[in-house]
Design goal:
The structure is a homodimer of 395-residue chains. Chain A has 395 residues and is of the alpha+beta class. Chain A has helices spanning 7-15, 172-175, 194-197, 201-210, 243-269, 286-295, 321-324, 329-335, 348-363, 380-390; strands at residues 31-32, 44-45, 51-56, 63-67, 76-77, 79-80, 85-89, 96-104, 107-109, 116-119, 122-129, 147-155, 160-168, 181-185, 218-221, 279-284, 304-308, 338-344, 369-373. Strand 12 of chain A pairs antiparallel with strand 12 of chain B.
Chain lengths: 395, 395
Amino acid sequence: MNTKAPATLLLLAFACLSDAPGPARAGAAPSPAPSNLPGSEYPRLEPNLGVTFRLKAPEAKAVKLEGGAGLSKEPTDFTRGQDGIWTLTTPPAVPGFHYYWFNVDGVRVNDAASQAYFGYGRECSGIEIPEAGADYYAARPEIPHGEVRSHWYYSKVTGRWRRAHVYTPPGYDKSGTRFPVLYLQHGAGENERGWIEQGRANFILDNLIGAKRARPMLLVIDTGYAAYASGVSASATATSTNLSNRIASATAAFEEVMLKEIIPMIDANYRTKPDRLHRAMAGLSMGSMQTLNLTLRHLAQFAWIGGMSSPPRTGFDVATAYDGVFRDAGAFNKQVRLLWLGAGTAETRFHASTVSVHEALERAGIKNVFYSSPGTDHEWQTWRRSLYDFVPRLF
Amino acid sequence: MNTKAPATLLLLAFACLSDAPGPARAGAAPSPAPSNLPGSEYPRLEPNLGVTFRLKAPEAKAVKLEGGAGLSKEPTDFTRGQDGIWTLTTPPAVPGFHYYWFNVDGVRVNDAASQAYFGYGRECSGIEIPEAGADYYAARPEIPHGEVRSHWYYSKVTGRWRRAHVYTPPGYDKSGTRFPVLYLQHGAGENERGWIEQGRANFILDNLIGAKRARPMLLVIDTGYAAYASGVSASATATSTNLSNRIASATAAFEEVMLKEIIPMIDANYRTKPDRLHRAMAGLSMGSMQTLNLTLRHLAQFAWIGGMSSPPRTGFDVATAYDGVFRDAGAFNKQVRLLWLGAGTAETRFHASTVSVHEALERAGIKNVFYSSPGTDHEWQTWRRSLYDFVPRLF
């Protein structure tokens, strides 16, 4: 009490001065990465967008950098200094967000200087590399901002608590009107935090809406994982030891959660336009697979569909895919307002597979949009750009 | 696309099946800690509430457990197995939430099996030890739940982006009425995530409101850190190299953010009752110090005050403390509806100091409530219990 506080507490407090998701810009001199926790000098951005990492580990025999392809395609060795401090400067990194961690004698170690992000099924460090001229995912003071709500709910399908993140556009509380909804799915190993923390989806929507390039809408970001509660499964597949049976069961459980729990809950609790013409779904990687599987089999529920960096597939057959939904191109084109497919040029297998599906659909007369993100891999910069391209086309 | 997904992606997905902040219960047999990421067998709760930790580190010379006092008062050595897997079983842990990490040859390593929580100025692992019979912070399906909104805003005082977490009670959107507000501050080294992720403040409020033991209210949880933007400081103290000057400047900046930015923003954007009789503030540790410093000097703004585990202080003088606010007991008691002080019995210095302030105030005729949390240290179980005792007394 009073200002005579224990100095240690206050020193710790100074180290934590809250920082900003503001516009990220590369400088002419080395500077702390914009994603660093306040007060951390390293990781340090070099003027050429290389990154210098540091770790004190006097007893270690080997320290490596591992993580996202645009930062560290292969594990890269640090060099030990006399003082037991290991350092590494990478080649120029690809702009955008990269997961990373240090491998210290075989143990994965997060960087104390960075925030943790959920990826690869665990908490990883993350770094933001500024992209020159790209301010579409920056937080900008001059425009109004939406909110992101954490909405907890108990799922009877899975017998577990779940949390949806719901973005409400600027002015939602006071407008009194109803809004369309985009359901947005993360990738494998990530969760419902990804599109906000890594993807900055809320800031992308703020910027698009602020520039009147997109209609105000809700985003609903939930987890893509689901397993039937014991006793709830409609079949014996949930507990099967056979992998493809278990995948089928998880797919069915996820679809049941989405169609019977999440969508009705959102329509009941938020001012939505609760019809297919005002409902979109998109996802990245595993989330793209889930989106296409679900929407193309439930067109009575969705009229706008986005598949970002779908897992590579072979043997795509227009006539039989998704229970034959593409067989009647005229009917499909009339019913579906947007079928959007995209990938980054550096995620070559994903890109090639997506191009090939896109072209097969074109040949069959199925209207669809293909978006290519230059130079980005199976990482979040591809999906930020994808969202930025996809959203203005909606509703 | 389709259900023929790459098996690796799906296997990763299975490892991530989203889990539940549901009621935590100790079992008769060893079981995964309720805070484990889904699929993680360790850390494992033993029937006596000891915890078994595991880490694979074949090259390490020494592995220690470090963290919260109720789990590991002193660093504790792991034992190496033949297979390079280190294990440790602790004595019975104190129920509640504990930060922890592994020290591997001098390097701090988070546990890949647990979520990360912001404490000690960095991302730490955390573990939840069930408290028998305590369901006041559990997510319970049978009662309605509020939401927690992330509200980003640009602070002109600090020249930085900040994020407030705002808990809205069940039914907020549809009620149309106005609500009182409790501003709630974290401790040093933590941030605005703490009261939700570690403290489970939203579930505590849900349970109290659901049982009609507390009035529906908003919680506003922001960071306690602030520094004047260059050029904004009213004095030269912000850039002083003198620690006490810098503390004074940070204190002033925080108070300016709270009084001139946060409170007006909340009153403008949410349906609040924007007067002192419907505005409370409370905080823990550093946040308690901030709360008492701010509210006791601005009673025109606050009528309800909570100080949890205030940093130990000597020389508390009723006549001069907080600019002499306690000098006229009659006037103080008339103006302040609640002055609440509390601490845990195991945080002995904090507890003794709080008792001594409480008694000095009593002797001076200043009405105040003292709450003592049995057996808990300077950790979150003390603050969960404190919130649970404090909130029903409000408004």
